[in-house]
Amino acid sequence: MDSRLVQDKQVDMKKRDLFDKCIRFTKARELMAAGIYPYFRKIESAQDPIVFINGRRLVMVGSNNYLGLTNDPRVKEAAIKAVEKYGTGCAGSRFLNGTLDIHVELEEKLARFMRKEAALVFSTGFQVNLGVISALAGKDDTVIIDRMNHASIIDGCRLSYSEIRKYRHNDMEDLERVLSNASGRGKLIVVDGVFSMEGDIVDLPGVLELAKKYGARLMIDDAHGIGVLGKTGRGTAEHFGVEAEVDILMGTYSKSLASIGGFVAGDEEVIHYIKHFARSLIFSASPPPPSVAAVSAALDIIDSEPERLERLWKNTRRMLRTFKELGFEVGPSQTPIIPILVGENETAFTMAMLLQEEGVFANVAVSPAVPDGKALIRTSYMATHTDEHLDIVTEAFRKVGKKMGLI
Q1: Phi, psi of 19 (to 5 degrees)
Q2: Half-sphere CA count of 313, side-chain side, radius 13 A
Q3: Can you list the alpha helix ranges (DSSP code H) found in 140-222?
Q4: Strand 337-343 versus strand 375-380 pairing type
Q5: ∠ Cα 260 68 331 (to 5°)
Q6: What is the mean pLDDT of the chain?
Q7: Residue 291 sits in which domain range?
Q8: Which end of the chain is more exposed for a tag (fewer CB within 10 A), N or C?
């Protein structure tokens, strides 16, 4: 190679700055300048059906607080008492000095609640998927996932160094194709129970049938199913009556369980193994005492107040019917997650801000979180929404939908 070309290449490499990508990233600032940036909105109140932004009252339909427990006095009192007894943190990992008696008590309660032999608590739901998948699957295994699975599942697969195979969303024929080509390897199917953007439910009977046929283990991420699905709110497996057939159940606290953190439940020997090999558990600080106590209180309320689940579904049925009658496209939603499909990213950004002007807080999902051209306004509902709240939401969507030519 010509010495001058080598020299020029060396100069170019010296000029390359790791932060160049940061300087080139201008999209968010352009949206801010246009007044349609829908992220990091500063909320000044609890995650109730009514929230405040800049002192202004908004109906919240962008929260995963499905059972309305994050501001429940009993949950808050449990968290306060835990701080008074244990302090604000554990100053170490579960593996070493960070296991309190209340961690163990919550694990026992979660195992009973999920009807499994054992459970293990983590500091976040994201860490559950990172730790569990990477602990169980390795380079000689295949992890098979739905294309619409949550990002934490995808990242857990990457950390496992296993072969990753995806199948078309909720498509059992395509899942069988993938499974049939994975012979001779350990196989783990990981699926969302409720898909967090689309609001539809996994075809769990179909997945189970294929898992048994091809000798695969099955893990369900039930972050949006626990507290929502099933006769007693125990999630997707209870909804289909197949709790004993699912190998591993994962859940989070940041939805129906009124806190932050996550857990995995399953057979005792599997949980014991994960406890000793999940890096996101071993090398992370332990869940703080108030979070643990809040979850325990929330579980008690779910068991003692089944009417919350009934109200959640009453509100869900009403809003699914309402959006369809207004003429919005809601996709395959079957749950309190009801997406309004709007098409282009900029349309979603604009609509979210117009809804805020009308007194409604809703979320935006754009590519790459959803496929190109499939941007949506993600709404979600709580047991504590009243008819008055939902009237406000209905009118805001009617007005904004007509203004934007969507209905």
Answers
A1: -85, 5
A2: 13
A3: 151-160, 172-180, 204-214
A4: antiparallel
A5: 90
A6: 95
A7: 73-304
A8: N
Q: 242 burial class (0-12, 13-18, 19+ CB within 10 angstroms)?
A: middle
Within this chain, do residues 195 and 233 fall inside the same structural domain, yes or no? yes
366's tokens = 């754009």
> Among residues 121, 171, 182, which one has the least CA distance to residue 146?
171
For residues 160 and 133, the answer to whether their CB atoms sit within 8 Å is yes
- pLDDT-derived band at 11, boundaries 50, 70, 90: low
Task: Tell the residue number behind the tokens 């932060």, with chain if given.
Answer: 19
How many structural domains is the chain composed of?
A: 2
Are 108 and 131 members of one domain?
yes
Euclidean distance between CA atoms 222 and 215, whole angstroms = 22
Place of tokens 């919240």: 60
Among candidates 344, 232, 217, 311, which has minimal Cα distance to 273? 217
0.85 exceeded by pTM: yes
**Rounded distance, CA 5 to CA 148, Å?**
46
Mean pLDDT over 94-108 rounds to 97
Confidence of residue 371 (pLDDT cuts 50, 70, 90): confident
Could you list the active site residues? 196, 224, 255
Assess whether pLDDT exceeds 60 at residue 198: yes
Residues 266 and 262: their CA atoms lie apart, in Å, by 14
Q: Are strands 186-192 and 163-167 parallel, antiparallel or unpaired?
A: unpaired
Longest dimension (CA), the chain: 79
**CATH code, domain carrying 291:** 3.40.640.10
Alpha-carbon distance of 72 to 76, in angstroms, equals 6
Q: Are residues 256 and 275 in the same domain?
A: yes
3-state helix, strand, coil in the chain (%, to 5): 45, 15, 40
Alpha helices in 161-263 (DSSP H): 172-180, 204-214, 236-240
- In angstroms, the Cα distances linking 376 to 142, 307, 353, 365 are 32, 31, 13, 5
Q: From CA 285, how far away is CA 88, in angstroms rounded?
A: 12
Q: Per-residue pLDDT for 237 more than 80?
A: yes
Which percentage of the chain shows pLDDT scores above 90?
94
